[in-house]
Amino acid sequence: ALNEMLGHIEDAVTNERAGQERLRQFVADASHELRTPVAAISGYAELRRTGGLTSPAAEDNAWSRVERESSRMGTLIEELLMLARLGESQPLDTQPVDLVEIARHASADHATIDPTRPVELTGADHATLNGDQERLHQVVSNLLSNVRAHTPEGTITRLEVTSSDQSVGLTVTDSGPGIPESALEHIFNRFYRADPSRSRHTGGSGLGLAIVDAIVTAHGGTVTAANAASSIGARISITLPTTRTHIHKG
Predict the structure, then answer these.
(1) Residues 245, 117: contact at Cβ < 8 Å?
(2) In 50-132, which ranges are continuous DSSP H helix?
(3) How confident is the model over 153-202, as pLDDT tens digits?
(4) What are the C-alpha distances in Å from 198 to residues 9, 70, 187, 195, 203?
(5) Helix, strand, coil shares of the chain as percentages rounded to 5?
(6) Which of the residue ranges 17-21, 110-114, 174-178, 203-207 would you say has the lowest mean pLDDT?
């Protein structure tokens, strides 16, 4: 009995240390990500103060960059706050929602943003669950945004929704280059980028798929990533229970 108790204490201490390390890494990563837009804004302000913007074109470019970096920083902060709230197990705004309708609306948004990458919606006619409609819409939107960021024009994406009494599912499969094998186990990590330079160039925060994972987990569901069986394209699969009404963090 004593050995068992000591084992539980040791496990608790190990888990606490691991949690502290994850928090330390998260703060360090967040600070690093915020440092870049802050430095850019400070740099252009310094140029303005010292008279380095010597033409209307240079000034217009500087203010355009300041606006872009400010927007990027604001988005990053909102995403960080969302992850923090989800991590604190704050209740979701749950109600009966139809995942098919959510997928349809997110697909329409995607088509407006980028008509060069068509989306096909297949599967069930309806897939009802107790869930947070806004957050689930963000899940699908983030997955489609991920397709836009990492696939060439002309890539076709298929959203397949499934439904049963106990769960609903969403599988997003694209015809792009797929996910590097070395990235498969990391892509839901916060700030992870399989292609850092391209992601930053396209404005990515490295939080999109981490938010997907956090929202799905908050609904009591699971999300996995793989490459399509045809050896081309990525496949991300989500399963959500139909009756979950509150956050559960394991």
Answers:
(1) no
(2) 56-87, 99-113
(3) 989 999 999 999 899 999 999 988 888 777 777 788 776 655 554 444 44
(4) 45, 20, 15, 6, 9
(5) 55, 15, 30
(6) 203-207
**pLDDT score, position 247:** 42
Nearby residues of 54 by Cβ (< 8 Å), 6 or more positions away: none
Q: What is the pLDDT of residue 73?
A: 80
Q: Provide the token pair at 248.
A: 């559960």
Strands 157-163 and 119-123: parallel
- Distance between CA atoms of 210 and 181, rounded to whole angstroms? 18
Q: Can you tell me which residue has the tokens 């797929």?
A: 178
Strands 119-123 and 234-241: unpaired
Nearest to 223 by CA among 242, 247, 209, 239: 239
- Among 190, 112, 182, residue whose Cα is nearest residue 148: 112
Give the C-alpha separation, 139 to 68, whole Å: 24
pLDDT tens for 43-85 read: 888 888 888 888 888 888 888 888 888 877 877 777 777 777 7
Which residues are within 8 A (CB) of 218 and not within 5 positions of it... i.e. 6 or more apart? 86, 89, 92, 132, 135, 247, 248, 249
